């Protein structure tokens, strides 16, 4: 499987952003980004991974290996999302005495 420009376009449109905003989010020129969408240039695996992370999708979706658009992982930044970062840090350090209670609250809030 190889990179799918069509899926890149769908992922961008799912975010509701234009090409210029997509290029800005990826810290690249609009022309360079446009070449990916037109299929004129194939991004490296590292670039595909960065696109997937920033477009909230999966690498496998962008490569045409999966129909599932959900990302395999998330990157949480201490700088931009300090509360969420702190919560994850506490969970990873096993400092929550009642982890199941937190998960129960989460599942109830999603209904």
Summarize the structure.
The chain contains seven helices and no strands. It is mostly helical.
Summarize the topology.
Elements: H1 5-15, H2 19-25, H3 30-38, H4 45-54, H5 59-62, H6 82-92, H7 99-109
Helix pairs in contact: 2-3
Described by the principal axes of the CA atoms, the overall outline is: elongated
Poorly predicted parts: none
Report the helical percentage: 55-70%
Q: Evaluate the radius of gyration.
A: 17 Å
Question: Number of helical segments?
Answer: 7
- N/C terminus separation: 37 Å
By helix and strand content, what is the structural category?
mainly alpha
| Order of helix and strand elements from N to C terminus | HHHHHHH
Average the pLDDT over all residues and give the rounded result. Answer: 89
Largest sheet: none
What can you tell me about this protein's structure?
- The chain has 111 residues and is mostly helical.
- Helices cover 57% and strands 0% of the residues.
- The protein is built from seven helices and no strands.
- Helix 2 packs across helix 3 (30-38).
